[in-house]
């Protein structure tokens, strides 16, 4: 056997071993990013709009059906409504199904009654924090320079709750970096970073914010449209995932599907397949951190069922 044949054989053996190891893994999954809504409610829903592909009631029973056989054992709901009482609606819906381990709600940190609302909802252990970013026509840049808004975020951090970002841009990443320095004890989760086109400026800010404790990146929203097509091959997404993994490492990445919004790019299992292949190739320990261990640190979610893992 010459050197070229030896290297080819070794490479094939390595790939086969990696595939076998991945197939042997049976890792429980906590999905940290799904949305719940009922389009048949009398008051309707603020999102999604009628006519959209995903305009179909999305509740825990449907989520269970969609993820059947995929070893998804728990999920965290991310707000998809700016209506105050929808925080309670979600909590009521989740209470009925133990697959739901928490929610990230929607509150305005500079609202006159914010402290009262935060105290009301945080009494429920399923209320894990709030989401704020490029959503509901809000100006994060402006708000993050407002002392009253900053005080509200400090109150969130002091309550040991999490702030999720929304829909990343270069400006938002820069603002989140400054916010973290203003509220050092704030636990933050940056969502949908795979959708962000990386630039040197963005990468610089991400590497800087990654130096701060309690900042996690949600490797969600991975599938994307390119030239009118949606690639489903893990190799296509690997370079972008490599950058995020290099910046944040194995201890600060968490899994999120963005279901049912993700249906715009592919079935649930198609998005999951990409990240499973990517992270399981790094070994069982890394894959476990991504799929559930890190989510405990990021969210302090509630253990509600026997099949949900404990740290």
Q: How would you concisely characterize the structure shown here?
A:
The chain has a single domain, classed as Metal-dependent hydrolases (TIM Barrel, Alpha-Beta Barrel).
Please give a structural write-up.
The protein is built from eleven helices and eight strands. By secondary structure, the chain is of the alpha/beta class. The protein has one domain: Metal-dependent hydrolases (TIM Barrel). The longest helix is centred in the N-terminal third of the chain and has 22 residues. The termini are far apart.
List SSEs in N-to-C order: HEHEHEHEHHEHEHEHEHH
CATH class term:
Alpha Beta
- Biggest sheet details: 8 strands, parallel
Per CATH, the architecture is Alpha-Beta Barrel
Helix content: 40-55%
Looking at CATH, which topology would you report? TIM Barrel
The total count of helices amounts to: 11
Structural class: alpha/beta
Strand fraction: 5-15%
Alpha carbon gyration radius: 20 Å
- Residue stretches low in confidence (pLDDT < 50, at least 5 long) are 3-23
How many separate domains make up the residues? 1
Overall pLDDT: 93
Shape: globular
In whole angstroms, the N-to-C terminal distance is 48 Å
Q: What is the assigned CATH homologous superfamily? A: Metal-dependent hydrolases
Number of strands: 8
Q: What is the strand arrangement across the widest sheet?
A: 1-2-3-4-5-6-7-8
């Amino acid at each position: 056997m010459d050197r070229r044949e030896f290297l080819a054989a070794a490479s094939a053996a390595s790939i086969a071993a990696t595939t076998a190891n991945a197939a042997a893994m049976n890792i429980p999954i906590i999905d940290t990013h799904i949305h719940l809504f009922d389009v048949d409610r009398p008051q309707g829903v603020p999102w999604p709009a009628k006519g959209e592909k995903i305009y179909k009631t999305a509740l825990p029973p449907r989520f269970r059906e969609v993820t059947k056989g995929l070893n998804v054992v728990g999920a965290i709901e991310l707000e998809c409504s700016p209506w105050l009482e929808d925080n309670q609606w979600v909590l009521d819906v989740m209470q009925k199904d133990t697959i739901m381990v928490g929610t990230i709600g929607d509150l305005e940190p500079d609202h006159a009654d914010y402290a009262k609302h935060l105290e009301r909802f945080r009494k429920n252990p399923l209320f894990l924090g709030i989401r704020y970013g490029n959503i509901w026509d809000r100006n994060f840049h402006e708000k993050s320079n407002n002392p009253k808004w900053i005080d509200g975020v400090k109150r969130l951090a002091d309550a040991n709750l999490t702030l999720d970002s929304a829909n990343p841009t270069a400006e938002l990443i820069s603002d989140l970096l400054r916010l973290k320095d203003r509220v050092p004890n704030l636990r933050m989760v940056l969502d949908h970073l795979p959708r962000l086109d990386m630039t040197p400026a963005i990468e610089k800010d991400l590497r800087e914010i990654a130096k701060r404790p309690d900042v996690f990146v949600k490797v969600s929203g991975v599938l994307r449209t390119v030239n009118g097509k949606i690639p489903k091959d893990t190799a296509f997404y690997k370079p972008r995932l490599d950058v995020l993994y290099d910046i944040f490492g194995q201890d600060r990445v968490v899994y999120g599907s963005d279901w049912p919004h993700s249906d715009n790019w592919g079935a649930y299992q198609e998005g999951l397949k990409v990240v499973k292949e990517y992270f399981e190739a790094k070994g069982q320990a890394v894959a476990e951190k991504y799929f559930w261990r890190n989510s405990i640190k990021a969210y302090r979610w509630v253990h509600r069922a026997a099949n949900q893992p404990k740290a």
